[in-house]
Design brief:
The chain is built from five helices and 23 strands. By secondary structure, the chain is α+β, with helices and mostly antiparallel strands. It folds into two domains: about 170 residues, no CATH class; about 130 residues, Cyclophilin (Beta Barrel), CATH 2.40.100. The strands form five sheets. The protein has a seven-stranded antiparallel beta sheet, with no helix packed on it. Strands 14-21-18-19-16-15-22 form a seven-stranded mixed barrel. It has a five-stranded antiparallel beta sheet with strand order 2-3-10-5-8. β18 and β19 form a beta hairpin. The two termini are about 30 Å apart.
Length: about 325
């Protein structure tokens, strides 16, 4: 059985796949990779199904030892990774030899780096998913972030290991899928509650990601948005990427471990094609919002999915 030994866990490293959909009525948010595009591409680079479980590292990467041969790929943010002190290429597959050590440092750009390994991380599924849900302590590896001394199992790769052939992501595709700082949004369920003047403030100003942000939500700092009815309403179901306006007038973008209901009005919702960009936002990063119509949001998602499914995405 192939293993990964954790010598240093990094700041916040968890096992994540593409999440557990359909359990919102039970109060369980999807969780999953904060940047699902990066995870999907990493899995393709090593020959896995797109939804295989990998490691998500946040702001500071870990150190991992591979007792046996493995094929890995790093995607997402650049954490300055090395194997036995030799630098390695991002967005590319790599053959790690028995006993070699993979080390990562602090982020050089972006917030999250993904380590995908051929076969995928082997953990017990919770509601059909390997993703760690930190708030509830369920899923992933013992329901928590990794610690020094943890040992992870790697699933047996389909078809075993053949002769290694390096693959990498095409540069043009990487450019098209790079994270955005201007987030495209559609109108939220309560958008009409906000006056035209207030919406001009929301769409015309820059917001900064607050230090208190986490996988549950991204708190924003900037111009206060005047809220109707004191910023409160009867609680209702909320969606991933919803932009709530709190009583203080500051927005919160609901993220992968969001609560499933909320009682703040929602002025907008980040479109599906831009959700992966949320996963690469760091504290103090600045963003803006751009409103698009539903037809445009659908078209942008279809274009993204077409690119992700393209044979030209990965080259040898």
């Amino acid at each position: 059985m192939s293993l990964i030994e954790v010598r240093a866990p990094g700041l916040l490293t968890t096992v994540q796949d593409l999440g557990r959909e359909g359990f919102g009525p039970m109060g369980v948010s999807p969780s999953g990779a904060a940047d699902p595009v990066a995870l999907r591409i990493g899995n393709r680079l090593v020959g896995n199904a797109e939804g295989a479980a990998g490691l998500e590292m946040t702001l500071l990467g870990g150190t991992f030892v591979f007792p046996e041969r493995a094929v890995v790929a790093l995607t997402g943010a650049n954490f300055g990774a090395t194997v036995d002190n030799g630098s390695i290429e991002m967005w590319s597959s790599l053959e790690v030899q028995p006993g070699q050590t993979l080390r990562m440092g602090p982020t050089r750009a972006g917030a999250r780096c993904y380590l995908c390994v051929k076969g995928g991380i082997d953990v017990k599924l919770f509601l059909g998913s390997a993703s760690t849900h930190l708030l509830s302590g369920l899923g992933g590896f013992e329901g928590r972030s990794l610690r020094k001394g943890d040992v992870l199992r790697i699933r047996a790769a389909n078809g075993g290991f053949r002769t290694f052939r390096k693959t990498k992501m095409a540069g043009r595709a990487l450019e098209k899928l790079s994270p955005r700082r201007v987030l495209r949004v559609t109108a939220g369920p309560q958008s009409e509650w906000f006056t035209e003047e207030v919406q001009k403030v929301f769409y015309g100003n820059t917001f900064r990601v607050a230090e208190e942000s986490n996988r549950m939500g991204l708190r924003l700092e900037g111009a206060a948005i005047s809220t109707p009815s004191g910023g409160e309403m009867i609680s209702e179901g909320v969606s991933l990427g919803a932009v709530q306006i709190t009583a203080s007038g500051l927005p919160i973008i609901l993220f992968v471990e969001q609560q499933t209901t909320g009682g703040y009005p929602k002025i907008a919702n980040v479109i599906s094609a831009d959700l992966s960009s949320l996963g690469q936002l760091r504290p103090r990063d600045e963003i803006r919002f751009e409103r698009v119509e539903l037809d445009t949001a659908r078209m942008l998602l279809l274009e993204q999915e077409k690119l992700l499914a393209s044979k030209e995405l990965i080259v040898e």
